[in-house]
Amino acid sequence: MSRVIVVGSGIAGLIAALELSRKFKVTLVTKAELVESNTRYAQGGIAAAMADDDTVAEHVADTLVAGAGLNCKAAVEVLCAEGPERIRDLIRLGVEFDRKNGELARGMEAAHSHARVLHAGGDATGYAIEAALVRAVREAAVDVMEHTFARDLMLERGRVVGLEVLDEAGIVRQIAAEAVVLASGGAGQMFPHTTNPAVATGDGVAMALRAGAQVADVEFYQFHPTAMAVGGNFLVSEAVRGDGAVLRDVDGKRFMFDVDPRGELAPRDVVSRGIAAQMFQQGGKPVWLDATAMGAAFLAERFPTIDKASKSYGFDWGKEWLPVTPAAHYWMGGIRTDLWGRTSLPGLFAVGETACTGVHGANRLASNSLLESLVFAWRCAEVLLDGRGVAASDFGCSDRDDLRAAVIDEAEAAAVVERGALQDVMWREVGIFRNAEGLGRAAAALAQWRGAGESVAALEDANLLTIARVMVAAATARKESRGAHFREDFPETSEAFAHSLCFAREVPVLC
């Protein structure tokens, strides 16, 4: 029986491993415990057009609007059309979504035209999904390697043939495989303020770049507008604003309608910039999220996780406002894939936040991320199960044919990268607001550093440096503002950049 390696244990990795185990010997590699991933912390829910008053076409339209003209339409149509059936698969796997009068309960989130966001345990959707899938994987014939770091891809004549790992005992091992599926999540640890867990260090994207794979849309990092401005930037779900919470400045005035006619329900990039600008005017003080009109009883029932967290930080949010700040949340870019998870390297697949299917464009529509992981992980497994996954992708999505090439400068430097210093540079120069001068400073700083060391922390820092460099290069090349990428020196959207930017490590690629 042939082996397939899956790296990552969020929804994408667990679904891929579970489905692939029907035919292959599957080894699932995760650098922490099996349950630790971005999926576990997803609060708001998962979006799908499953009600009679909603349609797939409307979900497609909302996703395209949020993506600011950069989505791969074919990918969006796959996402929205296949989403409902994949939700039913989750239910069959034991995910218990919240219900109202016997029907699936639906929430409204920003930039959706309908209430179509399904949730579980109020605001514990990701945890409920993760728990159900972990149970299923534990019961399946999947070899799980916890506390194991995916160090690098193994290549042979231009094909991925396995994975080099650093196991729990600190021993480097090589595992041969017919295919490797990267599902290792995002890279929020590139920034000091993030809603992501500590494991989100961009390892999959960095490994793929080193192996010569193409990446795309890496300049687009979505900042969640409302993380608690205390402790570890605990996420306050967009669904809270969807249910009626409002944003107030230091004087108590609602300010978002001065920014956008949609107010607090504008797309997250708009709300994040509105909050950041307000904080700048207030001398760096956080803004306030006012959910008091909903009442303590409702908040405790609808958002039990947030309710518990707010109380742990000393806030009674049913009676007082919460201080909030934007924080790095979701990476639209990643390893370039087709509609089946295939990359530019034969034998290498990518799904979930690690991948760039083009479905999100320049800005992710709220609660589409869990759906993307679910839909495209299933498709990735399907193409491998029926034998169509051996070759590299020819990237048939016509909406992404006009891509630009670039060379990534990976010049060696004397100083070893230090994560805190890298995070400070990225937050200051490559965060919510960008400009040529700041991006130049970031590029110069990153060029002075190199990765060094064989500990997991050192290898993570080297990965963060790799992806930080490519993000700065992409943000510098995109001389416009679009979606989550905002250039103060190019504040308008330009049709000259109505396409993705594609990068590879050593040689220019014509995408």
Automatic annotation (TrEMBL):
Subcellular location: Cytoplasm
EC number from the UniProt entry: 1.4.3.16
GO molecular function, one term: L-aspartate oxidase activity
Record keywords: FAD, Flavoprotein, Oxidoreductase, Pyridine nucleotide biosynthesis
Entry keyword Flavoprotein: yes
Domain FAD-dependent oxidoreductase 2 FAD-binding: 4-370
Signal peptide, first to last residue: none
GO CC annotation: cytoplasm
GO BP of this protein: 'de novo' NAD+ biosynthetic process from L-aspartate
Catalytic activity line of the entry: L-aspartate + O2 = iminosuccinate + H2O2
Top-level EC class as recorded in UniProt: oxidoreductase
Major localization class: cytoplasm
Domain Fumarate reductase/succinate dehydrogenase flavoprotein-like C-terminal: 420-495
Family annotation (Pfam families): FAD_binding_2, Succ_DH_flav_C
Pathway the protein takes part in: Cofactor biosynthesis; NAD(+) biosynthesis; iminoaspartate from L-aspartate (oxidase route): step 1/1
Cofactor: FAD
Function, as annotated: Catalyzes the oxidation of L-aspartate to iminoaspartate.
Database matches in NCBIfam families: nadB
Family stated for the protein in its record: Belongs to the FAD-dependent oxidoreductase 2 family. NadB subfamily.
Protein name: L-aspartate oxidase
